[in-house]
């Protein structure tokens, strides 16, 4: 059968665009369809704007710290509309770059909502297209509670472009997205509250990191209400009156719900074609990202793996290489480094202490909690945490966890080391860069526990 395209990609986010460009670069006829702005969540309402707002939020801390270094910064004034407009211009620039990259690769860009017709046909805007292979890369969206009070809330999709700056903000949830926004708006000048049903933030992270961030958030004035749920939200002339089930009432300007993300799969035709899904409603794929229908593939957030842009990019490259190249690679999900852009930053790679104790018989823990050199003059009581987890039998470093300024930047290099199987002895033999916070990771000599 003669198809119009060799590969039809549904979704123009990070994974979809990378797959489309790579396949086109190998001489394939490729189309990509999306009814939203090019670049997906990461570029438009995720990584990029969030990091820009994180940069903006740090100036508030820096202005305060500058006094300890002799600078007189009098009454700095933050103007929310200027930040929003600058962000919009940068996102438009990136949208254009994505469009040019696809166009220059001779990828056909189709603007519209695409859904599956059968194993080799896709319909967009009433027109049918045929393809030998179809890739589902539609990403994810914020989860919205089913409770009636949810109508008074916003998600991370809306918070970047609010007409008015929220002087009082309640964040519902305490995962990495929730805490990033809590720290962003705290740094920009909001009074920030967090409501969380658990007893410690950042579920799934190392317990020392979780406890450390609890303390750092409190120092900044972020008021966390643990083991609480929202009972009701009432709109008033002064804003939103939120009733928590611990008896506390909060009056705020906005309520941000950040309680995880769900795959963007509604109405794309999975049920009609019988494409298998997992219990969490993500698409079931094999190691080659193939669904149970041989011509249909899926990658990125829709498959239930790590919801990280670099993961989707890596999956896309492996998929295309297996489809149109000579190699038969599989994705290695071990030792994927991640950063959380809270204040202070968090960076981690490898196993948590709890995970390591399950997998290994005998481990050693190295930990350092210290005041960074910068804050000896800044006046801030912010601290940093460094932690190594080591397999005693092989001396191999199993996990590295950092909380402090630039943690993500520090961890990238150590992620390479863990991928190479670095040992604690090799860490010890490495000469530190002085004076830096990162040198602490190669100078910790005595384990704190085993």
Describe the structure.
32% of the residues lie in helices and 24% in strands. The chain has 450 residues and is an alpha/beta fold. It has 3 domains: 5-141 and 262-324, 3-Layer(bba) Sandwich (FAD/NAD(P)-binding domain); 148-259, FAD/NAD(P)-binding domain; 338-442, FAD/NAD-linked reductase, C-terminal dimerisation domain (Enolase-like, domain 1, 2-Layer Sandwich), CATH 3.30.390.30. Strands 1, 2, 3, 4, 5, 6 and 16 form a 7-stranded mixed sheet that branches. A hairpin with a 5-residue loop joins strand 17 (338-340) and strand 18. Helix 1 (14-25) runs parallel beside helix 9 and helix 3 (47-66) crosses helix 6. The longest helix is centred in the N-terminal third of the chain and has 25 residues, at 80-104. The mean pLDDT is 97.
Secondary-structure blueprint of this entry?
Blueprint: E1 5-10, H1 14-25, E2 30-34, H2 40-45, H3 47-66, H4 80-104, E3 108-111, E4 114-118, E5 121-124, E6 127-136, E7 140-142, H5 156-159, E8 168-172, H6 176-188, E9 191-195, H7 207-220, E10 223-225, E11 230-236, E12 239-244, E13 249-252, E14 254-257, E15 261-263, H8 270-273, E16 296-298, H9 309-324, E17 338-340, E18 346-350, H10 353-359, E19 363-370, H11 375-378, E20 384-391, E21 397-403, H12 407-419, H13 424-429
Helix pairs in contact: 1-9, 3-6
């Amino acid at each position: 059968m003669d198809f119009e395209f060799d590969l039809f990609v549904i979704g123009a986010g990070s994974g979809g665009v990378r797959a489309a460009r790579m396949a086109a670069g190998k001489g394939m006829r490729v189309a990509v369809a999306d009814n939203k702005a090019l670049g997906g969540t990461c570029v438009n309402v995720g990584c990029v704007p969030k990091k820009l707002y994180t940069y903006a939020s740090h100036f508030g801390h820096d202005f305060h710290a500058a006094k300890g270094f002799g600078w007189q910064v009098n009454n700095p004034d933050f103007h929310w509309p200027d930040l929003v407009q600058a962000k919009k211009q940068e996102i438009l620039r990136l949208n254009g770059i994505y469009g040019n990259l696809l166009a220059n690769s001779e990828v056909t860009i189709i603007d519209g909502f695409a859904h599956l017709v059968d194993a080799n046909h896709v319909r967009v805007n009433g027109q049918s297209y045929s393809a030998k292979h179809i890739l589902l890369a539609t990403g994810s969206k914020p989860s919205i509670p089913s409770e009636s009070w949810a109508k008074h809330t916003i998600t991370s999709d809306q918070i970047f472009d609010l007409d008015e700056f929220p002087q009082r903000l309640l964040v519902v949830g305490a995962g990495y997205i929730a805490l990033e926004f809590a720290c962003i708006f705290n740094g920009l000048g909001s009074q920030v509250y967090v409501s969380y049903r658990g007893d410690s933030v950042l579920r799934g992270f190392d317990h020392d990191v979780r406890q450390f961030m609890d303390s750092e958030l409190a120092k900044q004035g972020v008021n966390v209400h643990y083991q609480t749920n929202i009972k009701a939200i009432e709109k008033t002339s002064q804003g939103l009156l939120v009733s928590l089930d611990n008896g506390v009432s909060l009056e705020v300007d906005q309520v941000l719900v950040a309680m995880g993300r769900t795959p963007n799969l509604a109405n794309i035709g999975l049920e009609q074609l019988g494409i298998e899904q997992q219990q969490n409603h993500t698409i079931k794929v094999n190691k080659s990202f193939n669904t149970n229908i041989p011509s249909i593939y899926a990658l990125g957030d829709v498959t239930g793996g790590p919801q990280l842009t670099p993961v989707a990019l890596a999956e896309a490259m492996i998929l295309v290489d297996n489809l149109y190249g000579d190699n038969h690679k599989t994705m290695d999900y071990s030792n994927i480094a991640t950063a959380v852009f809270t204040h202070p930053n968090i960076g981690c790679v490898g196993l948590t202490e709890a995970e390591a104790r399950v997998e290994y018989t005998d481990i050693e823990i190295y930990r350092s909690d210290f005041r960074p050199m910068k804050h000896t003059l800044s006046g801030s009581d912010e601290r940093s945490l460094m932690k190594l987890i080591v397999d005693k039998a092989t001396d191999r470093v199993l996990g590295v966890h950092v909380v402090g300024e630039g943690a993500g930047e520090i961890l990238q290099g150590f992620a390479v080391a863990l991928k190479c199987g670095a040992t604690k002895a090799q860490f010890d033999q490495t000469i530190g860069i002085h004076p830096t916070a990162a040198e602490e990771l190669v100078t910790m000599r005595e384990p704190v526990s085993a």
